[in-house]
Amino acid sequence: MIKPSALHTSCDGGVSKSQETNRRCESQEKISIMAYQAGIPEEPSVLVNNISSNIHRLTLLTNELQRAVSQLGTEQDTSQLRHSLQQKQQQGNQLAKETDRLIKAFSALPVSIDQRQRKIQKERLLNDFSATLNSFQTIQRQAANKEREFVARVRASSRVSGGQPDDSFGNTSPSPSDSQLQVQAEAITEEDLRLIQERESSIRQLESDITDINDIFKDLGMMVHEQGDMIAEFPEEDMHPGDSVGCSCCCGRTHHLGRCQKVKTIPLLPLSC
């Protein structure tokens, strides 16, 4: 693991001294120091393996969530199912955040002669992570929609049961059967309120988690942009000493991203479910 004292040399040597480059160097150094302090490994191969493993785990977790969400609103919709769904949802969000931190650490590694290989690895990881996140967030939205449908049904049912005329109104001595019906109606209303509160709490949590995933999508978009800038600023001969064959647009230090290469953009999904 690289010591913090050594991290400040990561952006020296052969790099354009423009203000934009200095800003990016400082940003990478801060991320590297934060990664060191957080115990994130600095070895490229270890980071790649950890990121790939997390993406695989998130894919499996998304499949489990899909099966659980498909049971909402059916006879299998129990408190145990909803508890398991919430646990998996929280695990998925934490896994997504951890993977985001690892990819940031990988992006902030010092430039080396294997930069071309790193670029290929990073592009693959970004694409795989983006696709997995998209599937995960789709399941989040499906779960939130099903919870909203359940709340709407309970509210409608409660209005129907509560809107029936009260035959005992004005009677000083209601019959036992009327009293029993009234107690039963009140009990159902209390249960409905409990269910509504429980599901609305779940909806709020899902909406918060969806916002977290949207923030990660923003990070991925920034990393894609920074990767293009990095390729534009570091000429081919700097990244591959002795290799005279390279992309002609990367032979200068000040070429714009759009002139260097086409980078796949990651769409930011809207918050509305």
From TrEMBL:
Compositional bias ranges of the Polar residues kind: 169-182
Superkingdom assignment: Eukaryota
T-SNARE coiled-coil homology domain ranges (all copies): 193-231
CC annotations in GO: early endosome membrane; SNARE complex; synaptic vesicle
Major site of localization recorded for this protein: membrane
GO molecular function, one term: SNARE binding
Membrane topology listed for this record: Single-pass type IV membrane protein
Keywords from the UniProt entry: Acetylation, Coiled coil, Endosome, Membrane, Phosphoprotein, Transmembrane, Transmembrane helix
Biological process per Gene Ontology, one example term: vesicle docking
Classification via InterPro entries: SNARE, Syntaxin, Syntaxin_N, T_SNARE_dom
Region (Disordered): 1-24, 154-182
A Pfam family of this chain: Syntaxin_2
Localization (cell): Early endosome membrane
Database matches in Gene3D superfamilies: 1.20.5.110, 1.20.58.70
Family: Belongs to the syntaxin family.
Entry function: May be involved in protein trafficking from the plasma membrane to the early endosome (EE) as well as in homotypic fusion of endocytic organelles. Mediates the endocytic trafficking from early endosomes to late endosomes and lysosomes.
Protein name: Syntaxin-7
Organism, scientific name: Scomber scombrus (Atlantic mackerel)
